[in-house]
Amino acid sequence: MYHPKDKIYTVSLNLLPYVAVVFFLFRNHTILELVLTTILSSLVILVCAFLLRLDFFQSQPFAAFVLCFVLSTTLFSLIKSVSNDPASPTADVNKYLATSRAWYILVFGSIALLMSLFLPPWGQPGGYLCVYGINLSMEKALMGARDAMCIVILFYPIIYTIGIFPQVSTFVIWFCEQIDMFIFGGTAATSVFSSLFALGRSVLCSVVLWAIGFGVLSAYLPPSGVSLHGNSCHRGGCPGPRIKCTNEVNVGYSFFLGILFAVAFHLSRATSNYRLYLDLLDYGCGMLCTKACSSGILSKRFKKKLLQKDETQDPLENVYRTALKVRLLQELIYCSLIFLIVAGLSLSTVFCVAQPYLHYVVCGITAVLGMLNHYVLPHLRKETPWLCIAKPILKAAEYGFYEYSNDPSITVVEKILLLSQFIEKNICYPLIFISGLHLAAPRMICVFGVFGAALVISVTGLKIIRHAFGELSRQHMLLILTVLFFNFDYAHLAEGFPLDYFIMSIIFYK
Per DSSP, what are the bridge partners of residue 137? Predict the structure, then answer.
C-alpha cells in the first residue's frame, strides 16, 4: 500500500475496472502513514476485543453486533481514504479525518476499560463521598461513566455523520484547552503540541504539589488534631459544622503554601510555546558541545558541523534567546521572593487567631476595591459614562483639544488606578487565598482524608491563585458571588473557600 511521491504512474482507465482504479489511487502515501494506520488498526481491534468481554456487551448481544459494525467502519476508514473535507484548506484528502474515528474509539474505549478496572469486585460495597450535600457512590459513578462511554462508541457512526465531533486534532486542542483553563487555571492554546505541552506542564506541577502537600498534611495536620463543634466529623453521611483552625503554627504547611504561590505565579506568566524551551535546550547542548570541542574531546568532523551550523544561524535567534534567559532569571528571583513572603506570612499566628473574621474583612475590602478598579473608575473615564452622562467625568489632560502638540501626560487618577490594581492583585488576593487555605485545610482533611485533601488543596489552590494572577478584571465578581452564595444562600453546603471559589469560577465562565 506504499508508493513514493516522486514517481508518476500512468494508468489507462479502459484496461482496469473502476474498483481497481479507486483501490490504486486511494492508498497511503508515506511509510509513516502506513505504519501509523497499521498500529492504529491493531490497537482498535485490541480495545474492541476487551470491550466485548465487559458485562455491558455480554448481556446485550445486539450491542455486541453494533460494536462489531463500528469496528468495521473504523478499520475501513483506515484502510481506505475518506472523501474530501469541505472545511479543509487544501484540495486533497484530509489525513486527520481518515484516522479520527480510530483515535476516538481508542480514547472512549480506553476510558471504559479503565472505569471497569477501578470498579470494586462484585458483591463488595464501594466507597461513598459526600460533597455539597450529595452522597456520591464511587461504584455507581464509575459504572455510569463506563456505560456512557460504551453508548457513545455504539452511536459513534451517527454522531460522526451529524458532525458533533470535529476532527481529532481540533478535539485534542479543545479538550486540553478546556481542562487546562477550568481545572488548572491556564490560558487558550493555538496548536495540538502547545495545548499538550501546557496541559502536561500543569499536570506535572499539580502532581509535584500533591506529593508535597500529602507529606505536609500527613505530618503536620493529622485529622485527630482538628478541633470540631461536635463529636464527629460527619453528620448523616455528610460533613458536619464548620471546623475551627487550631492555634498551632504549622511550619510545613506554610512552606507548602509558599511553593504553591511561587508555582502558580510562574505558570501564570509562562508561555505555552514549547519551541522556545526546546530552542533554549538545544542552545545549551550546543554550548556544551562547543566547550567539549575546544577541550579536544570531540572529533574534528563534529567541529566542522558546529561551525557550519553557526554560519547558517539566524541572528534574530540570539535576540529572543537572550530575552527568554532574562525572563527566566527574573522569574526565578520573583518566585523566590514570593515563596519567602508567603511562607513568612503563613507562619504568623494571625491566620489562626483572627479567623474567620480576618477572612471576611479581607474579602470585603477586596470586593470594594475590585468594584472601584474594574467597574466604577473605568466607567467614569468613558466618553458617555453608563450611557447617562454626555461627557466623561474623569477627563484626560488632552480632552477638548483638536490637536494636542505636547506629549500625553499621566493623570493623578490613572496613577491611583495603577497603584490600586497593584495592591488588589499582589496584596489583597494573596491574603484572601492564604486565609482561605488555612481556614479550609482541617475541613478538607476531615471530608476527603489526607490523600484526597492534598489533591483538592493542590489543584484548587493552583487554579484560583494562577487565575487571579492571570485575569484580574473579573475576580471581584467571582469573589462576591462565592461569598454571598456559600455564606448566606447555601451556607450549609460550603466545603471550604478554595473549593467553593474553584466551583464558582467554572459555573461563572460556563
Answer: 128
Structural element, H or E, at residue 367: helix 357-371
- The string of DSSP letters for 459-495 reads HHHHHHHHHHHH--TTHHHHHHHHHHIIIIISGGG--
> Which residues touch 7 (CB under 8 Å, ≥6 apart)?
none
By three-state DSSP, how is residue 234 classified?
strand
Asked if 97 and 163 touch (Cβ cutoff 8 Å), the reply is no
Place of cell 459544622: 241
pTM above 0.90, yes or no: no
Record the cell numbers describing residue 484, joined without a space.
454571598
Rounded-to-integer distance, Cα 37 and Cα 166, Å: 19
Q: Nearest-CA neighbor of 355 among 496, 152, 186?
A: 496
**Which grid coordinates are listed for 381?**
473615564
Burial code of 108-143, b = ≥16 C-beta within 10 A, e = fewer? bbebbbebbeebeeeeeeeeeebbbeeeeeeeeebb
pLDDT string in tens for the chain (510-residue length): 444 455 554 545 454 555 555 554 455 667 777 788 888 889 999 999 999 888 888 888 898 999 999 988 888 877 765 554 444 445 455 666 677 888 899 999 999 998 888 776 654 555 667 777 777 777 788 888 888 899 999 998 888 888 788 888 888 899 999 999 999 988 888 888 999 999 999 999 999 999 999 988 887 544 444 433 333 344 444 443 343 444 444 788 889 999 999 999 999 988 888 888 887 777 777 666 666 656 555 555 555 555 555 555 666 777 777 888 888 899 999 999 999 999 988 888 787 777 788 889 999 999 999 999 999 999 888 888 888 888 888 887 777 777 777 777 788 888 899 999 999 999 999 999 999 998 888 888 888 888 888 999 999 999 999 999 988 989 999 999 999 999 888 888 888 899 999 999 999 988
β partners of residue 128: 137
